[in-house]
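W.,

You were right to be curious about this one. When I first looked at the sequence I had no strong expectations either way, so I just let the prediction run and decided to look at it fresh. Below is the sequence, 283 residues in total, followed by the output.
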Amino acid sequence: MPRSPGGVTGGGIILRLLFFAGLEYFGLQIFATVLVETAGYLIAAAIGTFLAAAVANAIVVRIWERGRMENIGLGWSRVSLKHLGLGVGGGIASAVIVMGVPIVLGLARLVPSLEDRPTPGRFLLVTVVLFFGAAGEELLFRGYGFQLLMNRFGPWTTILPFGVLFGVAHLGNLNASPLGMVNTTAWGILFGYALWRSGDLWLAIGLHFGWNWTLPLFGAPLSGFTMGLTGYELQFNASRLWSGGAYGPEASLLTSFAVVLLAVWLARAPIKRQTALLNSPRE
């Protein structure tokens, strides 16, 4: 029978967070090192993060809460499927707006890429990698540590600093920019709100994956990384403020607007909160 973490002392919380962070760090070093030699950087970063986060979460929730992964928001049900679908749809719609508006206004256009050689196998591989990459980042930033603190201190005391942490974690990405980091922080806050709103990780995973998957479909860089999927690329004839430059649309004002629109939509979406061990914070 899982037990509640509500009575954990301050020292106990710190110990658990340090242990969780240590497992994450060493797991990432091990998995990423092995994968980068055999599968390349993109797969190593995405799958390595997922494996490290999944293992760390599974261990700590078993040791201290006598629970399982479903107790941190990965339980599966019809509601979970609905939340995942809503998230994927919301992420795709927001990305289409961010890249479709410039195309309609003549500020960008899709042109054939001279470098990309898209194949069905590559498309499937990148899709799978992006899904597990999104799931891994959500387990890392909205998993056990996040939920432990949210349960103890309330939602916004946890959501806001973890959003900043999410942005800071992307500072090392290629061609990172100040606006890109502001937007990434806003995404982190949005994902935290999605978890609080839904009571599971599926809504946040869906949003994360839907956005990450759609940008490469348009041939746009994703957080500084370019991955050709369709044989086309998005070329802007607008300033970096609207295009995001080499970092991609995530460093543009259009993404800033999109995150705000998504937050408004999330507040009104037909979401039914589920109940898990750690993510039932005080209102």
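Here's what jumped out at me. The longest strand covers residues 108-112. And, maybe more interesting for your project: The chain is about 65% helix and 5% strand.

Coffee later to discuss?

I.
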